[in-house]
């Protein structure tokens, strides 16, 4: 299994290994049940009522009516007991720890020196995976509530809310120069990243032919994307926060509905994008992109 969120769980307390075990046990149990009931590979029947075709089909376990109750019972009994034992063991062994190091490109919520609770991070990550299936939302919510109570964290506290720990930027339609395979690459989360022969520069790799993508080409694409973002931020329109109409004139301080004007693009979006681009430039050794990012950041700090 390849879960990006697993890479940010601490290794010292065995959280990464336990994450794999818990998620794999759930997937394996569901698969075995579906296979035993011949739900996998079965040819779906055509609907007789044409009006029912307009109703969206439920995904996940909910698509198999006979399996929903089995999965709910599995979560409430076997999986819950496993997670209780694991969470209690990790919490007693390592109640909290300081983050010693963190990949600059990947860090969004944790930085060096921050306090981290391994058991809490494991609980949030596993429950987030289980929540992908909407048919078992109530069971997962109940399980998460009990686990948080076990480790002394409030259910509605800010630290109990899962946030993506990894930065993200998707570069669309990147074409491999060797096999012409085209795909969208999340430059921060893509697992196909390897060092070159010298072991000095990190490259993205084509999953089909294992050919390296050109870092220089990607650097130029990122510079173009950054220029577009800064241009869009500079030339953006103002919008009324009440009626959401675009400001038509230049002089009126407020909208005709007495609402205040606000920018279409949040003031936090551009600094966040600059931080992401800057981290990518440093990790993958893109000096020109790094220079552009530093120049834009300098202009922002100077109020220009």
TrEMBL record:
Domain DNA polymerase-epsilon zinc finger: 234-291
Main location: nucleus
Compartments, as annotated in UniProt: Nucleus
One GO cellular component, as annotated: epsilon DNA polymerase complex
A Pfam family recorded for this sequence: zf_DPOE_2
Cofactor: [4Fe-4S] cluster
Catalytic activity: DNA(n) + a 2'-deoxyribonucleoside 5'-triphosphate = DNA(n+1) + diphosphate
EC number(s) recorded for this UniProt protein: 2.7.7.7
Keywords linked to the UniProt accession: 4Fe-4S, DNA replication, DNA-binding, DNA-directed DNA polymerase, Iron, Iron-sulfur, Metal-binding, Nucleotidyltransferase, Nucleus, Transferase, Zinc, Zinc-finger
Family matches, as InterPro entries: POL2 (IPR029703), Znf-DPOE (IPR054475)
Swiss-Prot/TrEMBL GO biological process terms: base-excision repair, gap-filling; DNA replication proofreading; leading strand elongation; mitotic cell cycle; nucleotide-excision repair, DNA gap filling
GO terms, molecular function: 4 iron, 4 sulfur cluster binding; DNA binding; DNA-directed DNA polymerase activity; single-stranded DNA 3'-5' DNA exonuclease activity; zinc ion binding
Purpose: DNA polymerase II participates in chromosomal DNA replication.
Family: Belongs to the DNA polymerase type-B family.
UniProt name for this protein: DNA polymerase epsilon catalytic subunit
Origin species: Cacopsylla melanoneura
